Amino acid sequence: MIVLEKYDVGVEDIPVRLIDFSLRVFSTIPSRSALKKIIKRGEMWVDGEVAGEGLWLQAGQKVEWIDPETHIPKIFPLCLKIVFEDGHLAVINKPPGYPVSGNRFKTIQNALLFNLKLSAEKDALKIPRPVHRLDYPTSGLLVIAKTANALMKLGQQFQNHQVKKRYRAIVAGKMPKQGIIETGIEEQAALTRYQLIKHGRSLHTQWMSVVDLFPESGRTHQLRIHLSTLGFPVLGDDKYGNVSVRLKGKGLFLSSVEISFQHPETAHPINCKTGPPEKFTSFYNREQRRWKKYYTDNP
Q: Is residue 267 part of a domain?
């Protein structure tokens, strides 16, 4: 049995039920339904005892997510690009079109044993675990823990907003050079900073913008919601975008391209970068050519 993550309930957290507190603090649990199954399996403990989802927590209590290590899933043979790896953690480049985890076979979680070496540390996890989430259609850098201590410490860094992330997106419209979006999400504070890279023309949306995004909170679908709320939805977003940005077969133009955090064992700074997917450049250039050709042929 290994403690995957643990958190103390603070005075500022109450009143709160176990399920709501756990969904907020355990960054690797993808959804409420997944959390309910974890609780039903008896893997969520409060003060050393198995607890039910309806339990009302008290300040000072300790909530732990336990891994009984009784089940090794079938390995999904998907090749992943490894950006960084050592005995404690890894950073991989997630391809779009796959969930990070969940009750499916074709997940990034199930592909990790196909790509990563298991840790030789005493608290090594039998299955490496993602430390945070990326949406199903989003690509880019994903941090993976290979030991229980790395999972806990990295999870705390995410919870405490100590991890710095940069995303690259192509959005509809002509965005300002820089700004801050502070629209709340599900009654919780959320903040995203953005920096314009360049503008371009598009027959789909008249204008499009290539932007870097810096989320300072980690709400579900935060970047997609914030950009849509501001009036610049991400191209390919069929959930928060309007008809003009739903590019059939092109996927979502949002990718995690840089992440910085502190190594959970050495405390040394780790900074990983990757370029945006090739489709970003090819689509942008193709749209410029189509715009020029259309208005050359139709002056």
A: no
Q: Is 135 a catalytic residue?
A: yes
Q: What is each CA distance from 203 to 200, 236, 245, 269, 292, in whole angstroms?
A: 10, 14, 11, 43, 10
Asked whether residue 148 is assigned to any structural domain, the reply reads yes
Domain that holds residue 53: 2-67
Task: Please tell me which residue in 135, 212, 238, 297 is annotated as part of the active site.
Answer: 135
| Per-residue pLDDT tens digits for 35-82 | 888 888 888 999 988 998 889 999 999 999 887 665 677 899 999 999
Scan for tokens 């290590």, then name that residue: 69
Four-residue CA torsion sign, 234, 238, 242, 245: positive
**Which CATH number characterizes residue 92's domain?**
3.30.2350.10
Is residue 106 one of the residues assigned to a domain? yes
DSSP string, 34-91: HHHHHHHTT-EEETTEE--TTPBP-TT-EEEEEE-----PPP-----EEEEE-SSEEE
**The domain boundary residue, chosen from 67, 96, 113:** 67
Confidence of residue 29 (pLDDT cuts 50, 70, 90): confident
pTM value is: 0.81
